[in-house]
Design goal:
The protein is α/β, with parallel strands linked by helices. It has 3 domains: 60 residues, Beta Barrel (OB fold (Dihydrolipoamide Acetyltransferase, E2P)); 194 residues, Rossmann fold (3-Layer(aba) Sandwich), CATH 3.40.50.150; 113 residues, OB fold (Dihydrolipoamide Acetyltransferase, E2P) (Beta Barrel). It is 22% helix and 27% strand. The protein contains 9 helices and 21 strands. A 7-stranded mixed beta sheet has the order 17-16-15-18-19-21-20, sandwiched between helices. Strands 1-5-6-4-3-2 form a 6-stranded mixed beta sheet, with no helix packed on it. A 6-stranded mixed beta sheet has the order 8-7-9-10-11-12, with helices on one face. Strand 15, helix 6 and strand 16 form a beta-alpha-beta unit.
Amino acid sequence: MSKRRPRKKQLPETPVKVLIESLAHDGRGVAHVDGKVIFIDEALPGEEVEFIYTEIRKDYAEGKVVNLLSRAADRVNALCAHYGVCGGCSFQHVESSAQIRIKQELLNEQFKRIGKVEIPEQWEPLIGPHWGYRRKARMGVKYVEKKGRVLVGFRERRHPYLAEIDSCVVMHPIVGTKLLALGELISNLSIRDKIPQIEVAIGDDQCVLSFRELEPATEADHHLLSAFGKAHNMSICLQSKGPDTIIPLPGEAEVIPTYALPDQDIEFKFRPAMFTQVNYEINKQMINRVLDTLQLNENDTVLDLFCGLGNFTLPMAKFAGKVVGIEGDQPLVNHAKENALHNNITNVEFYAADLSKDISDEPWARQKYTKIMLDPSRAGASEVLKYFKKWQPEQIVYVSCNPSTLARDAGILVNELGYKLIKAGVMDMFPQTGHVESIALFTK
């Protein structure tokens, strides 16, 4: 006999009044009701709000504001009409300079609580455009028969459904203002219900949209897609399976997006599904900060861990004697080598290696390095830190997209490996969101 699923517990419908005490690491307001912590979307410290529950669990609950009874000084009206429904942003209700301050406070708190390390000096935050900055994204696509239209955009906040939006103010305008037009285009295709996503890759002067197709597009579809691309200055590609199956439309030339680092006279080529930083202005500032900090010269041998397609490796090689880049993704390593050739940079070496595994037998791991650069994923770099005893770098610059794992790793570097934290700070890579990009400097 099959077991019945337990019926989902009905949530209370009556609004509850609370005072918001603080912010959680993801930017939600924190309050307590009958001793249980409640995480509340779009609520700021010091505000009195009425909220309704959206989820109740054993140890905590979640909610959303239905009435704002008092207003924090940092609160502003959201610019986007879809804010609160679309899950792409979570901080539009916070004034821009306050977003930076909140993220810096979060970084300080994480270092103290998780890493047991105090930040002795804060770097000046790196700040760029607050709107229209995003150049990489994976947008969802859904044909909704009842609505008679195709939705293009992002998931609803805390729901798996695609949000019904007509524009996105954080996306680069070449795509952010075209969501309705993209939906209308797909509505006219024979495979309108067989396209689940669009990979967006915007370079300095190129925009490539890769349409994931679960069934092959027809010749008529190809003509519609091609005409749309020409009308909107976009290159349209099709993707039948994984990222390596992205190809241009039949008869059209492949467009390779590029981004430049003018201060270092470097140009990167990348393929649409490859990882690149979403915010070019902050990326340029970030690279300049790394170079200014490390003060590289021909006597330096630098190890660049989690190097990707060489975003830091190649700029550092302009000044160092030698730079070795390590990346877990072989296609990215291949592309990094191509970018080195493209820029006539010869004092670099790239290797593919899983940095969460044993690397002690790798030839590059048996060398010593004067300086090390790290830019890991959200999981951080704890597994590779044990090799720092062998490498003995004088300086370490750590760029992070997760303050929690950066704080954990800072604790290892300082409390176990004998390094000194010199300074740390935030970089506004993702304005209007709770994501915190940060940078820290350690010395021997």
